[in-house]
Every structure is written in C-alpha cells, then in structure tokens.
Amino acid sequence: MDAYAQSQSYTLEPPRSFWKRLKHLGPSLILTANIVGSGELIMTTSLGAKAGFVTLWVVIISCLVKVTIQLEFGKHAISSGETTLTSFNKLPGPHWKQASWSIWTWLLIKTFQFIQYGGIIGGVALALNIAFPSIAVWIWAVVAGLATAILTAQGKYAFFEKFSIFLVASFSLYTLYCVFALQYTSYELSILKIAEGLEFQLPPETIGYALAVFGITGVGADEIISYPYWCLEKGYARYTGPNDHSPEWEKRAKGWIKVMYLDGLLSMCIYTITTAAFYALGAAILHEQGQVPEGYQMIATISQIYTEALGPAAMNIFLIGAVVTLFSTLFVASASGTRMFTDGLAQIGVLDFYNPEQRNRWFKILAWFIPIAWTMLFLLMNVPLFMIMAGAISLTLLLLLVVYAAIVFRYRRLDKALHPGIVYDIFLWISMLSILAVGVKSLLNVY
Fold first, then answer.
1. What does the longest C-alpha to C-alpha distance in the chain come to?
2. Fewer CB atoms < 10 Å away: N or C end of the chain?
C-alpha cells in the first residue's frame, strides 16, 4: 500500500473513544525523539548554564506556543492529502523553474542547516571519545554518520515510531530522576529560583542562546514541516480519504483530526516537562559553577549535571544516555530529511514524489548522502556547539515561512467544514505572533 496515496478503498472510520485513539498515536512521538536530542541536551542546558534560571520562561514558551501551528500543518495534510512541500509550492508568490519562492527558500535554509546536524554528529563523537578515549573523535564521527545512514536506509515508519518512543522514554525518565535527586544535594531547586525564571527577563548576553533555544526546542520549523509526512505515513489522510465534500468524508476528517490533536498535545506535554528538566539541571549546577559548555569540552561539561546530582558513577550512564539522545536526533532528522528533500527535489522537477518507485529510490540515496554530508561538515569545522547554534538560528528564520504557510492553510485552503472555533484561532494567532516576534529579532541580530 502506497503511504502517500488516497483512495476510497483505504478509508477507515476514526476511533471514538480516548483509549482507542491512543492506539493511533505516533507521528508527534517521532518528532519528540528529534526534539529531545540536541535541543534539550545541548542548547537548553547551555542556556541554563549561561543565564541561570532567569530565562526559564523562554524554554517554556518555546515548547508551548508552536504546537498549534504543528496541528494546523497536520490538519492541512489530513484534509488535502498533500505533503508539506507540495503545499508550499501552491503558496501565493513568484515561481522560478516551476518551483515557488517558498521551495527555494526552504531548500536554501534547510541545506544551511546541515551545519547543525554536523555539530550533533560531533556531540555523539565526543561522548564516545570520553567513554573510549583510545579511539579518535574523527573516527567516532564517521561511525556515527555511517550508523545513521544504515538505520535510515533500512527503516520503515513502524520502525521509526517504535525506536523513537524507546529513545525518548529511556533518557527522559532518567533526566527527571536526576532533577529529583538534585533536591538532596547543595544544588537543590527552590520556589524562588523557579519564580525568578518566570519574570520575563532576557539579559543581553543571553540573547543569542535564547534565539537558538527558541528555534530548536519544542516543535521547531524542521519538526513542523516534517510532521505532515509522518501523519501521512501513519495513515491519517489515507484513512480519511479524498475530499468528495460528502458528510461521510467530513465525519472521517474530523475524527482523524481529533486523533492528530491528541497525538500533538500528548507529545507537547512530554517534551515540555523534559526540556524544563534539562534547563533546570544546567541552571542549578553549571551556572552555579560558572561553566558554559563549549568546544571539545562540551559533552564533558554537560556531564556534570548528572555526576553532581548522582555522583561520579553516573558518568557512564550519562555517556550512554548522551549517545542515545543525540543519536535519536540524528536518526529522526535523517529519516525526515530523506522525505523532505525527496519532495523538495520533486517540486523542482527532478522526480515524481507520488511515484512510489522513484520516491523510495531517492529515500535510499538520501539516507546515505545526508548523514555523510553532516559528518564531512563536522570534520571540516570541528566546532560542535557553534554549529548547532548556527543551524538553530537559521531554523528560527524558517519559522517565518512556516507562519505564512499556516495563515494560508487556515484561511485560504482549509475546507469550511473543518473550520475550528474561536479558542483554537486565538491560540493559533498567539503562536504566530510569538514566532514572528522572535523571527524579526533574529533577523535584526543577524544584520
């Protein structure tokens, strides 16, 4: 069965009860495996180390405000059956070589974002080098890149979903335990420290870190754009069927959109709690010690949030967790990248995305090309934290395109039968205005 095809013969009535809907969750949990990697372990912890508790509000808002736009993208995929970049190519504006300005903008920023994942390759390599110092960092980087390519080339949707859930659960639970254990050390949390982080302060020296964190934590531009592909492969649009404007289609669409809403909101709860936990560990321990992760000492510095909370014996467990968490980001980002870049190439005429044979062939080609390119960038640049920050800020700029697309999806393309209520629209506009504000600030910082 073609995961991206729609036919009346594929339709399925949506589950009506909460418990039955749980059986159909998954796309957002794949995104969470991506989010909980570089965003939480590296950038969120680094912001906490730099600023202390004062920017806790940035982390929380970053996790909460973008989910409505994610849901809007998912809703559009279910109602139209289109992939994200197919929809982007229909946005108003000029075209060049059959592709919309939005496609070329996405290709430019997404290609630049390779730098970020090169930095994450470096993070995995640094963690493995600490565990096995006799093997050079560059060798571990090559190993990480090849492992990502092998798994991406062989994995199907079900594999991505199950593996992502395992990765998220294992390290997130361990991190929450560390926050609990912190209460029995000299770095214990207090209500006053948490309250300080909710005063909406943003010291000038933390702006760069804060912008990067906003771009990379919660559902960032990358996750929002990739989300429809996972919704389509999960079957939400296929089960809904092509829009024939019948009452039956409307009923199915609303039912599967409810499943998608639950999927997005549940994962939002998971990554918000986990992100706040990472930030608290960085603020409570590293900021107090005056240490900010950087350079080749990045992973060793971050490891102190675990060794200080649980003792020296926690180092080995941390290294395992760090490798697993960062690798989960590589794994999901690579899988998402194969889909998005294949679709992007299709929009400029290289292939037909809706031809399963061509699509799967390009999935396999890109499953090798993308991780190898990331690895080469790390070997050439060798500055992992800077690479991650640079890629994260570029994604903040891409959020401006995401906001524009969300407006078009909601007000120009959404079937009238699926129009939401006023409360949903209020949250959607809060999301969009917050993102616009940060995106404009990013542009001002760049120029």
1. 66
2. C
How is residue 424 written in tokens?
A: 């949903």
Q: Which helix (H) or strand (E) holds 100?
A: strand 99-100
Instruction: Say which residues have a Cβ less than 8 Å from residue 375's Cβ, sequence separation at least 6.
Output: 118, 121, 141, 142, 144, 145
**Successive 10-residue mean pLDDT values, the chain, 447 residues:** 84 92 90 72 76 84 86 95 95 91 94 90 87 92 95 86 83 80 81 84 75 70 92 94 93 96 91 85 81 67 72 74 81 94 95 93 96 95 80 77 94 92 92 76 55
pTM, entire model: 0.89
* Block residue for tokens 């995961």: 3
Sole residue written with tokens 């339709």: 11
DSSP 15: P
What's at 11, amino acid-wise? T
For residue 443, the tally of other CB atoms under 10 A from its CB is 12
Q: What is the DSSP string of 299-359?
A: HHHHTHHHHHHH-TTHHHHHHHHHHHHHHHHHHHHHHHHHHHHHHHHHHTTS--TTSHHHH
For the chain, the helix, strand and coil percentages under 3-state DSSP, each to the nearest 5:
80, 0, 20
